[in-house]
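Hey, can you fold this one?
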Amino acid sequence: MTHTAPAPFAILGMPRTGTHYLEELLNEHPKVWSNGELLNTYDANWPDKDRLLRSNRELLELAYLRFPTASAKKATHVGCKINEPQFQERPGFFDDLARWPGLKVILLSRGNTLESLRSLMQARQSRQWLKFSSDDTAPPPRVKLSIGTCEDYFRAADDFHTRVAHAYASTSLLEIEYERLLREPAACLETAWRFLGVPPLQLSGCATLQRLEKRPLDETVENFEELRDHFAGGPYAKFFELDDALVREG
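Sure. Predicted structure:
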């Protein structure tokens, strides 16, 4: 008797764009199972810690054909998540992923890329990547960002989003904004269920996004004014507009 392989999907995004939160929400569905970061050696979802020594093809077979799953789940849709820097660390994997038959991609983006970079640098400094409760804790450290780091990161985000858009047909790509996922998780998930092709599900409310940082950019980036002056009048000046609701909310 032949078993049909589950429908494959991937969650893609720059770091700190809500991919972990989205995955938690998706995994509430009894027919959906996403296995965390396929290309992260330390991801607890993967018992095979030596898997990154395998070829791209073998890794993709692990992700979509021989994947670990929760014992009670009989998933019809199986996925993983990959952040943009992980593609840089493994050249060729992006193209091999794009060639996987029937793959659907959910791309997360953040309205203000500077928020994503600030959050990434804070997590690296504090080594605190996730917040597990709403209890009061010390705020993340303030960070100082070089102009070069900002320029490189902004361009990397633009290039990555363009690359994803060109690699997948519109019917195989769903884009979700971090800010909307934060405000309207149920509506975003309804769109995601429809995109993947599974029956709708009312969210339990158990998964909530615990944001590590709620302060605005000018309070958390030490050299904010220097950066704003440098990028003024250019394509990235919008990231430094403090009146923008996206900045205050991010």
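The two ends are 50 Å apart (CA to CA). Let me know if you want another pass with a different chain boundary.
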